[in-house]
Predict the 3D structure of the following.
Amino acid sequence: MCLDLQSISDNGASVNPMTGAGQGQQLGNQWMKKICIINTGGTIGMSAGPDGLRPEPGFIAEQLALMPELNNPSMPQITVQEYEPVIDSSNIQVADWRQLAGDIAGQYEQFDGFVVLHGTDTMAYTASALPFMLRGLGKPVILTGSQLPLADVRNDARENLKTALLLAAGYTIPEVCIYFGELLLRGCRATKHSAASFNAFSSPNYPPLGSAGTELEVFQDRVLPVPPLEQGLSVESLQPQEIATFRLFPGVSVEVLQNVLQRPLKALILESFGDGNGPSRHQGFVECIRDACQAGIVILNLSQCGHGSIRQTAYETGAALEKAGVVSGCDMTIEAALAKLTYLFSRDLSVEQVKTELQRDLVGELTGTVA
Ligand code: ASP
């Protein structure tokens, strides 16, 4: 359930007056812009409980009311909506993605952009799924959160939130992004690479869409084009799918792999070595892969390296996988590949169609031509 907790401009806690401190700043006047903050949970709004950090309902709105910077005219008008319950993002489900996409689409005309507060643990998964769901998006949808809660003395939450708001209000960014630790990243290219650093996210195979050092910059040539107005926003629904990932390592058990490659499994992401190589001399390995492909299980090759693209024919050890029927995942992140598989299997496609679509760029998730 989406609880429209409060418009913080309604209760007077934080409005954007035409007057106020900081008018001389170089940031443009954005107080006419309307941004919806949707709080799903995450560390940003957590406090300490007996068993560790836990999300606290109402905490975000309370804390925002204590931030005088939000009164600066460079800030947009904000409405805060909070999900009930607010969750640790480790608990996020496909149904939550459906709700989020539906809530954005349902209020799309009322706002100039959306800032989604989300836990960092699965932020890249949600940021990868939303682009497949929000088709024809012409406004910014920026996910952010923090490594430390908003109320901590030292925290990254304030800067992440304020900059996400400025970006959503002041720039043409018609796509789903993550803003975190000074970087604006394409959502379906991003991955969480650090559990400890304030710079927790990167997009290893696509350059940042923007950066926020002393200058706030958006590199428009890296941002997706604005879709034609007549296209409008439509929502594609996703359903959970029987898919899995499997990481290769020296000594991997073919028997275990065989057990994984059983129905109801529909697709397996094979986390391979380097350019997309596997232990092709390992007794039974290639046969096991080939049998699964012939049985209609989609096996998608992604490198454990993260940075770089799959080149299945660079080495014999990769060519063996290609010949067995494994599909190249190009330079997708694991998060994007999981979201894409979920999206494709939620459509009424044949296995061959799924394999073809996996290698086409649908929403900016892989290097190629956007379909
Ligand atoms: N466990 C938290 C979450 O993902 C971590 C965070 O937000 O940084 O909700």
User: Anything to note?
Assistant: The domain at 243-358 is CATH 3.40.50.40 (Rossmann fold).
